[in-house]
# Entry
Amino acid sequence: MAQILPSVFGANILHLQDEINFLETENTEILHVDLMDGTYVNNIAFGPNQIAALKKASVMTFDVHMMLANPEKHIDDVIKTGAEMISVHYESTPHVHYILQKIKKAGRKAGVVLNPGTPENVLQYLLDDIDYILIMTINPGRPDQTFIEKSLEKIKNTKKMISDRNIQIEVDGGVNIDIAKKVKEAGADLIVVGGALFNANPKASYQALKNAIQ
Ligand code: ZN
# Structure
């Protein structure tokens, strides 16, 4: 069954505790947290200390999406936040396999993220080390973009590649109600949503998003 993963980057930072309470009242299982370093992507957000503090204030599972240069330098700090799911960009390091091993050794779920220009078959020799594949459906760190339609083909091809392995497909970027339905039909299991949820009427928007992926 597919599920919606609210992205904390889309929430109101001045009312973060209220936003977390709202998401928990709505039975949210997984919170998506973007970690951006200003180098791998232009934006800067949510360092390990802030993520650890948020984690203490919540019962949700944390899915940390590392958008970092040299993630091998930061992975220990990210593991220390207590996040249950951690993903690394394939393009961000020559040491993807090493980082995946570190995440798995710490008992967390390990994900690899693919930018829009990266084909899914680069993961061929990593499939036994991965719990989820995060397919970027916009370019990372630039939230003011629209969903890249070509991503639907990539989700389908990724699903074929995974075959009967126990690997989930996550989708991140530009998802609204219509697109949530499309990516779910293409094979996405975990659907990250920011702006389409945290708007003037989050309760109604959340329900509409959940309905769209039933
Ligand atoms: Zn993300």
Summary: The longest helix spans residues 151-162. The mean pLDDT is 96. The radius of gyration is 16 Å. Residues 3-212 form a domain with the TIM Barrel fold (CATH 3.20.20.70).
